[in-house]
Amino acid sequence: MTEESAHDGGSDLRSDGGNAGDESVVRRDRFSGGPARSFLSSLAADERIFEADLEVDRAHTVMLAEQGIVEDDVAGQILTALDAIEVDGHDSLPDGEDVHEAIETAVIERIGAEGGKMHTARSRNDEVAACIRYRLREDVLEAVETTLALRESLVAVAEAHAETIMPGYTHLQPAQPTTVAHWALAYEGAVGRDTARLLEAYDRINESPLGGAAFAGTTFDIDRERVAELLGFEGVVENSMDASSSRDFLLEATQALSTHATTLSGLAEDVVIFANRGFVDLSDDYSSTSSIMPQKKNPDTLELVRAVAGDAAGGVQGLTTTLKGLPRAYNRDLQRATTHAWETVDAVTEASEVAAGAVATADWNEETLAAEAGEGFSTATGVADLLAANGLPFRTAHEMVAHAAENGADYDALEAAAREVLGDPLESLVDPDAVEEALDPAASVASRDSQGGPAPEAVADQLELARESQSDDRATLEELDAALEAAHESLREEVNGYV
């Protein structure tokens, strides 16, 4: 994925279309050899954008023919060669600095010097930017698909466990009772925002840089909008320097993926802890055993999901550091930039898929959860709320319940605390039956029916909103997928008119 200034028709091509020794049809002999050749080359890494480059070449060639810049018969020869190159595959390409040079060389080897007209009115600067955007669109949509699968798994858990009481924690200390559904929907909301960030990043990826050339445009009468249409882009990056050199879209996508990886890490950490405490059993498909301790069942997959957050954060840092000091327009540093994005999108997408499967197949141990739900006087806040609702200042109620927590955390302890703190019996403030109910974890959860709370009625409202959000995002994903497929088919039809 290297740089080249705009090429206006093939002046550096040998008339026989071949190579002389190590001579490159693009770089020429002076720049095609030497000990740094392998260091400069990105050809192996570019396999990822091989098909993207072929599509970009096709769209550009069709536009050149439509504009009368390249003859129809020459366009047909070029497009036929591109089809043959696709069939042969990336591994059959001749040596080159990158996939773009290798494909152009392969076209010229097949049809002669006329193949160099494929590169008229463009540079590898805008070409590679287009290829990255073209491929990244697909990768981001795949990542979106995995976020939706995870959200659907979390909703399924919530539907099944709306009344499954479990302990809730702050600082990993018993805090208040909640439900498995409430916990699952907390992550569904976070992953939903991850979906939104990825879709927003997609909008800025989905703009065509083609026509920016090296950075200063071209003298040819090209149609940038037409190329964008053929490739399924929503529009063009207007400024030619911005089009060829900017990679903020790459950074934004990587940042969105890193944020999702952070959400996944939190989810994985929770489930690892829950498994340790016997709250949940992971499926064997998402676990492993020890090589020496046969009784063990380890949550290895989720530990790796947790680790991906570090990899993704490293990708953001590496990409940011690469980009931060670059002047406009093109700099060869950008060849190293995309690796961070590709590695991040692959790792996070896989981790998201694994997390979805682990959540969907896990078994929640309801009896153990219920037994632990009142651990550590977790209903204390509910008792304090009850006292405050009956006229006692909340801070005084807080002090009284804290005193009771140190002396038994039951009704008798509360009675003793009332006499010590207030000088009055507890029943003078509140109905004893109401206190007993507030001390019960299930009743405590049922009473927390404020918007977004864990009470089953509140959870039902959250479930409805989650389903609606998922349905909307699913429809958006399907629309975007369909648009890309339609563009691919449309371009194929145009190509078929020449070959």
TrEMBL record:
What Enzyme Commission number does this protein have?
4.3.2.1
Picking any one GO molecular function of the record gives: argininosuccinate lyase activity
Record bears the keyword Electron transport? no
Q: Where are the coiled-coil regions?
A: 460-494
Q: Where is this region: Disordered?
A: 1-31, 440-460
Q: Which UniProt keywords apply?
A: Amino-acid biosynthesis, Arginine biosynthesis, Coiled coil, Cytoplasm, Lyase
HAMAP family according to UniProt: Arg_succ_lyase
Per its record, how is this protein called by name? Argininosuccinate lyase
Q: Gene that codes for this?
A: argH
